[in-house]
């Protein structure tokens, strides 16, 4: 499994962001229905959502927020056209990546040597905004990492096939509204197979399909290695 491969190579990965994700200034944020602050919040309004993120961080004396992998989230109700367009069908709410909530303009680095597989500006309220997918290889196994909610300026300099060195800055965390109209954060996801997709990949799935998607998209913390994201 890809998770086993990533675990074997943890010493080989560089940072995805130029910040210490093990710092006491980093805190895990909860966007599930168990967080009472989300109950009445108008998450459709990005300014209000941004204030909520700031409050969650302040409550934990933190500057950077992390979390989200396989979290059953309520925040996708802000974009029903993306996540539950059919009101008769179950809504997608299972988050497949890790979000790092921090200031716009923060550089994004390649954790491993890569080539740019594809990129796209996934426009629309609640979407990824500018998105980059990198292709990597370890022990002859090809896998992919996705970076969502970036800046248009930096991603415009990339093209498929471009070689990216480990530790190289290739993008920046984007501001609203160009980042898909979210409070600034990086969505980081790992995929074993893109299933033919280009410039995009589901970041949210049905809770009932958790096992299938967890196998396809292993824990990004195998690369990030933040103690705040460690599972029990």
Descriptive report:
By secondary structure, this protein is α+β, with helices and mostly antiparallel strands. 17% of the residues lie in helices and 25% in strands. The chain has six helices and twelve strands. It has an eight-stranded mixed sheet with strand order 1-2-4-11-8-7-6-9, with helices on one face.
Identify the notable features of this structure and list them briefly:
6 helices; two-stranded antiparallel sheet; M23ase_b-sheet_dom; about 230 residues; Peptidoglycan DD-metalloendopeptidase family protein; globular
Question: Could you give a quick summary of the protein structure above?
Answer:
It contains 6 helices and 12 strands. With 232 residues, the protein is an alpha+beta fold. The longest helix is centred in the N-terminal third of the chain and has 14 residues, at 46-59.
Q: Please summarize the sheet with the most strands.
A: 8 strands, mixed
Low-pLDDT ranges: none
Radius of gyration equals 17 Å
Class inferred from helices and paired strands: alpha+beta
The count of helical stretches stands at: 6
Topology of helices and strands:
Layout: H1 2-8, E1 26-28, H2 46-59, E2 64-67, H3 80-83, E3 94-95, E4 98-101, E5 107-109, E6 114-122, E7 129-138, E8 141-148, H4 152-155, E9 163-164, E10 169-172, E11 185-191, E12 204-205, H5 210-216, H6 221-224
Parallel strand pairs: 1-2
Antiparallel strand pairs: 2-4, 3-12, 4-11, 5-10, 6-7, 6-9, 7-8, 8-11
